[in-house]
Specification:
This protein has about 280 residues and is α+β, with helices and mostly antiparallel strands. It contains six helices and 15 strands. It is elongated and about 60 Å long.
Length: about 280
């Protein structure tokens, strides 16, 4: 499989990193892409992944890649093992390409059988002579993504890897729920810039019947008001709803729910149910 370089428009390369914006790392990454292939449109997806947070990068990739056109290349550089013997890989599936370290970033895609093939990235003669041991994202991964963007065959990137050899996170699915009588245990996955709290509960994937919910508890706060949109919520009152990624989210209408509750990623969340015996299925990790 390869990208058709004769198709209209440049090749799309999305970028997910933990670099932030205070340094030149994002700019250097884009420059390296364009140095290798001018026919590229680099798109910033998320550079605010918490430092070294592979799980957050994996969720971001899983939740976002399908919004881009077929043939898009998704370059993910969250690499706490940079410079070590860990593998760098390219993968393909669902009509997309993924370029990243082999450290669990593809976990959710692998669990959903959305990855079809994987290759270990071999170094190429078109790379800079100097490869920094602290910036493989710029000096090895970006050139590999650029080779795909310029129409090089996926199979030419390096030797094939068996999918069952790829590293997966211990908790490979977004939901970290476990059952107790009339309650489900989960956690706060993330807090966005509005203070909305994304929990690990995903009703569609976990087969949670929303009609059975009586509320959820974070810290000492019990949130019992369920709404469909932020505007439906009473002012200054925490509520819960299904967010744009399909997760149960706690929010305050035009307010900051995380500040109001005093929570952060990793904090436990208990989902309270009216009748646990009516819950058809939950997927514990």
């Amino acid at each position: 499989m390869r990208i058709n370089v004769d198709s209209p428009g440049p090749a799309i390369v999305t970028l997910i990193t933990d670099f932030g914006w205070q340094d030149a790392y994002v700019g250097q990454l884009k420059g390296r892409l364009l140095h290798s292939c001018r026919h590229i449109l680099p798109l910033d997806l998320n550079h605010a992944i918490p430092p070294w947070d592979i799980a957050a990068a994996a969720r971001c990739l899983y939740d976002s890649y399908s919004f881009f056109p077929l043939g898009s290349i998704h370059l993910v550089v969250v690499d706490p093992g940079v410079g070590s013997e860990r593998r760098l890989l390219a993968a393909t599936g669902q009509g997309h390409f993924f370029v990243c370290p082999d450290n669990g970033i593809l976990s959710h895609l692998l669990e959903e059988n959305r990855i079809e093939k994987a290759r270990e990235i071999s170094r190429s003669s078109d790379e800079f002579l100097r490869i920094s041991p602290t910036f493989h994202g710029r000096d090895i991964l970006a050139p590999a993504a650029a080779r795909l963007a310029c129409g090089r065959s996926f199979d030419a990137l390096g030797p094939a890897l068996a999918l069952n050899q790829l590293i997966r996170l211990e908790k490979a699915k977004p939901n970290a729920a476990a059952m107790t009588p009339n309650k489900l245990k989960g956690q706060v996955l993330s807090v966005d810039q509005f203070g909305n709290i994304r929990t690990s509960f995903h009703p569609l994937r976990d087969h949670i019947n929303l009609a059975l919910l009586s509320g959820l508890r974070i810290k000492t706060i019990v949130v019992s008001i369920q709404v469909a949109t932020y505007a439906e919520a009473p002012a200054d009152t925490p509520c819960f709803l299904i967010d744009s990624g399909g997760y149960i989210e706690v929010a305050v209408n035009q307010g900051n729910a995380a500040q109001a509750i005093g929570c952060q990623p990793g904090d436990p969340v208990r989902l309270q149910l009216k009748a646990i015996n009516s819950l058809h299925k939950v997927n514990p990790v």
